[in-house]
Design a protein that fits this description.
Layout: E1 29-33, E2 37-42, E3 48-53, H1 63-68, E4 82-88, E5 95-98, E6 107-108, E7 115-118, E8 128-137, E9 140-149, E10 155-163, H2 173-179, E11 181-186, E12 193-198, E13 205-212, E14 218-222, E15 240-247, H3 248-251, E16 267-269, E17 274-284, H4 291-297, E18 302-306, E19 317-322, E20 338-344, E21 347-352, H5 364-374, E22 377-378, E23 390-391, E24 394-395, E25 400-401, H6 415-427, H7 435-453, H8 483-486, H9 496-511, H10 521-534, H11 551-562, H12 566-583, H13 601-610, H14 614-625, H15 645-649, E26 658-659, H16 662-677, H17 682-694, E27 709-710, E28 717-718, H18 725-735, E29 738-743, E30 747-751, E31 753-758, E32 761-766, E33 773-776, E34 781-785, E35 789-796, E36 801-807, E37 817-824, E38 837-839, E39 842-843, E40 845-847, E41 850-854, E42 860-864
Parallel strand pairs: 29-33
Antiparallel strand pairs: 1-2, 2-3, 4-5, 4-10, 6-7, 7-8, 8-9, 9-17, 10-15, 10-16, 11-12, 12-13, 13-17, 14-15, 18-19, 19-21, 20-21, 22-23, 24-25, 26-27, 27-28, 29-30, 31-32, 32-35, 33-34, 34-37, 35-36, 36-42, 37-41, 38-39, 38-42, 40-41
Helix pairs in contact: 5-6, 6-9, 6-18, 9-10, 9-11, 10-11, 11-12, 13-14, 13-16, 14-16, 16-17, 16-18, 17-18
Keywords: Signal
Signal peptide: 1-19
Pfam families: DUF5695 (PF18951)
Length: 865
């Protein structure tokens, strides 16, 4: 058995015939039940049309759209279709056939299964014979293919896979959230599986696991010609995918320039030999939280790594394998990149090697800051758009700043795609301030941000770059957005990034006096506040939507309160409460500019939780659980669903599943916040921590950060543009922390650190990127610093006391003091104000809503009782 903690996707072109019911809906369907499922199969094609859990009306297939949108012509895929590339071993000619290409009614095979079909009439199989069966597997539904070589010479099967869906087309917001689901792959060979999540995050889920020898070797995107309203490759529908069992034909042709997740395989059938392939559709009646348990119940192997699958060099993880068979060997790629220590009971300690470079390493954020303020630094006094000096978008493949693009977003210094670079550079200063970087940011603020991007009334332009053939500028593009359009100031999303930049410089200057040279910290806090307020005025569109990164607005509000800016804090509170009152009247208030999106939930969640609207907060959290889950792979674990933003701000402009786009970092904020409210629910932490750590995987060894990775198996590479990476980094900064958790299954577990338990006392070395925030799960308490770093902390479960060792930044300015804030969550037995904070036995003074801790050049020990 091959057990791979990794993943993949693809492409197939099919001829189409229009105007007829090729699938055969008109000739009727079969309806049948197993203990766990209600299913409908089309008689003529014997493909699955409906799959509902027993006792539920939720359908994991769009049965209504299959008929209403006439998805019944040749070339349209359905569950149960199969694709094969094969040849006789004596021939150099490959044959490609699919049950979806030119449909003919299949023949009843009479095998005694629930439904059995000979696919010979609908496929060009040559010497092969394929029997498809729908079978009962211990109350679940199984799909089984038997492939037989009926010829007189060996046949090589180079590629084989079965189609496995979500169509938002023509659905309103309620229908999308109540009827649709997302499928997430674990491309893990024999341990591979698909997790199918209801989009509202509640109710039964589905997990598809292998039967027989049916590895999930690759996960191909299936091309279809657009069928009118069911247009694939759009924000309305990502398209179908395929569970690919053998991928050698693809790997040696269409994917030849790519290193796949798994070693490609083929199969050779001797004359008269048969092979069975199949998958099991297992019902998860208890919902998303119980998918891992459901996988275990099918006896399919699975893996759970704590804290996740991205491990910094100075940290470690614990890998738990769920399998009934022993582990015979382990290998790593590259060789010796990980040290594996057997802990017994199918558990292993994973320690990264110091000799192999990994994306998430202690210097990753430092290198990012350097790269952004040097390589991205744009200086051109002749630039007619007023973009100089600034931190512009960057082409990591060419090694050059992107100055022109007809889409405008990547070069316009506003919008997520244009502001991404400068906001990442700014927010990095909140935890790793650097004097040289701040000098450039202050110059950018004075000469571009508050001069060109914003006007004197704090309005934010849509972009700065535009196309005007009359302009004295050396255009390399021949079309683009016009000046009147790009100078519009009515997009609320654009107000987040300037506000975040001001707030970040306020935080850096407040924690490290003397670091700011151009303005004082009050100037930056004031501009952050006024930018937020301008973005909420009546002439601004989308202001009543949840905005990407607007947790920053909440941080600005809290800092206004801490600075005793009562009038401004009240104004901001009133504006946000008015938005919340609108959301409370809506069933699904977390939409966006798109038909469906995963960007509005973060902002809506912050304010619903802030104002105590727990019912709506729970619905928002559940929504995130419908498109963000935990998977045994670094790329898909905590990877919130995103698939069209390469078109907006990427270099390769394709609608394609994105690995660790900004959905990861931003939606992680929701999951981590929900966990802090319910520290017994480790699932939320696993997902959220996967998102925050995923946001760091984009950073290259030289410090360049890509907007996202391309997930299709013919690509499997990081996009060349920095694009809209900045919001992802913002999410990471706002969400990161070190978590100590008493897990019901695994005991005391560290997320973002290394824990050692001695006589019940847990001592933890902080290893998260910020090292400013810790969360003690058994106490339900978060502790945060505004300066310095937490090197280590100890928790005593008997006394329920915490002690911290606080030090200075290794590189960068040294702080004379730090403010320590305590936040007590719903599970805490004490209010934050009840905790005593002492240094050397002396109670720390109160300041800015927290406690002021004097720092030295060494370690300062802080005791919290």
């Amino acid at each position: 058995m091959h057990f791979r903690i990794l993943f993949s996707l693809g492409l197939i072109t099919l001829p189409l015939a229009f105007g007829q019911d090729d699938v055969g809906f008109g000739n009727g369907t079969y309806a049948f039940k197993t203990r766990n499922w209600k299913a409908v199969v089309v008689k003529d094609s014997a493909t699955l049309a409906s799959l509902k859990p027993a006792g539920s009306d939720f359908d994991f297939l769009p049965y209504d759209l299959m008929q209403l949108l006439r998805r019944v012509q040749n070339g349209c895929y359905h569950w149960g279709d199969i694709n094969i590339r094969y040849r006789a071993t004596s021939s150099d000619t490959w044959n490609e056939t699919s049950s979806a290409t030119v449909r003919q009614p299949v023949i009843e095979a009479g095998t005694g299964a629930l439904v059995s079909s000979d696919l010979s009439p609908t496929m060009e199989l040559g010497p092969l014979k394929v029997i498809r069966e729908w079978v009962d597997v211990s109350g679940d539904l199984g799909l089984r293919f038997t492939v037989t070589n009926s010829g007189d010479e060996d046949v090589e099967i180079w590629a084989l896979g079965s189609a496995v869906n979500n169509i938002f087309t023509k659905r309103n917001v309620s229908d999308v959230n109540e009827k649709c689901s997302f499928m997430e792959p674990y491309i893990g060979q024999d341990a591979g599986h698909l997790r199918v999540l209801p989009l509202n995050g509640i109710g039964p889920a589905l997990v598809i696991t292998p039967l027989y020898k049916t590895p999930l070797e690759a996960y191909r995107w299936l091309w279809e010609d657009n069928k009118g309203e069911t247009r694939i490759g759009s924000n309305m529908w990502e398209g179908f995918f395929e569970w690919t069992v053998h991928s050698k034909a693809w790997a040696e042709n269409e994917w030849k320039d790519v290193d796949p997740w798994n070693t490609p395989t083929n199969a050779v059938l001797k004359p008269g030999e048969s092979r069975r392939y199949g998958v099991r559709f297992a019902a998860v009646t208890e919902g998303v939280l119980n998918i891992d348990a459901a996988i275990a119940s099918t006896e399919a192997p699975n893996a759970i790594s704590l804290p996740g699958y991205i491990i910094p060099r100075d940290s470690q993880a614990t890998l738990h394998l769920q399998t009934k068979v022993g582990t015979h060997s382990m290998s790593t790629s590259p060789p010796d990149s990980l040290q594996v220590i057997d802990r017994g009971n199918n558990s292993y300690t994973i320690q990264p090697s110091a000799s192999t470079w990994g994306r998430v390493r202690p210097r990753g954020c430092t290198d990012l800051g350097t790269f952004l303020t040097t390589n991205h630094w744009f200086v051109d006094d002749s630039d007619p758009f007023g973009r100089s000096p600034s931190i512009m978008g960057y082409d990591g493949e060419k090694g050059a700043i992107i100055e022109q693009d007809k889409r405008t977003a990547p070069v316009g210094l506003s919008d997520e795609g244009g502001a991404g670079a400068y906001v990442a550079a700014a927010v990095k200063q909140t935890f790793q301030p650097n004097a040289a970087e701040i000098t450039k940011l202050e110059e950018f603020v004075d000469k571009v941000l508050f001069k060109t991007i914003q006007d004197e009334n704090y309005a934010v332009k849509r972009w700065l770059f535009y196309y005007d053939p009359e302009l004295d500028y050396n255009y390399t593009i021949t079309s683009g957005q016009k000046k009147d359009y790009v100078y519009e100031i009515n997009r609320a999303y654009n107000y987040v990034w300037p506000a975040a930049t001001y707030w970040a410089l306020y935080r850096a200057g407040r924690a490290y006096p003397g670091l700011l040279k151009t303005h004082d910290w009050e100037w930056y806090l004031n501009r952050a506040y006024k930018t937020v307020m301008r973005g909420m005025e009546p002439d601004i569109g989308f202001k009543d939507k949840g905005l990407m990164g607007e947790t920053v607005f909440g941080k600005i509000l809290v800092d206004l309160q801490r600075e005793s800016r009562s009038a401004e804090a009240q104004n901001l509170t009133d504006v946000m409460r008015a938005r919340l009152d609108v959301w409370l009247t809506e069933a699904y208030p977390y939409g966006s500019e798109q038909a469906w999106d995963s960007t509005g939930q973060e902002g809506v969640y912050f304010w619903t939780r802030y104002f105590g609207e727990t019912d709506l907060a729970t619905r928002v959290k559940n929504s995130v659980m419908g498109y963000m889950t935990t998977v045994p792979h670094w790329g898909y674990n905590g990877n919130a669903r995103r698939y069209w933003d390469f078109v907006v701000a990427g270099k390769s402009q394709v609608v394609e599943r994105q690995i660790h786009h900004h959905g990861s970092g931003l939606n992680a904020i929701v999951m981590l916040s929900a966990f802090r409210d319910d520290p017994t629910n480790s699932y939320l932490l696993r997902v959220g921590y996967g998102g925050t750590s995923g946001a760091l995987s984009n950073i290259r060894e030289d410090g360049f950060a890509s907007c996202a990775m391309h997930a299709w198996p013919e690509h499997l590479s990081w996009d060349g543009f920095s694009g809209d990476y900045g919001p992802n980094f913002v999410g990471m900064v706002l969400g990161s922390g070190t978590y100590l958790v008493d897990d019901v299954d695994y005991g005391m577990v560290a997320y973002g650190g290394i824990v050692k338990v001695d006589d019940d006392r847990a001592t933890m070395q902080a290893r998260d990127p910020l090292r400013r925030k810790i969360f003690i799960g058994p106490l339900g308490v978060e502790i945060e610093l505004d300066a310095g770093v937490v090197e280590q902390f100890t928790y005593d479960p008997n006394s329920r006391n915490v002690s911290l060792k606080v030090g200075q930044l290794g590189d960068g300015p040294q702080a004379e003091a730090a403010i320590l804030w305590i936040t007590a969550g719903p599970s805490s037995t004490k209010e934050a104000a009840e905790y005593q904070v002492k240094v050397d036995g002396v109670e720390a003074s109160r300041d800015r809503g927290g406690r002021k801790i004097a720092l030295t050049s060494g370690l300062t020990e802080v005791h919290i009782d």
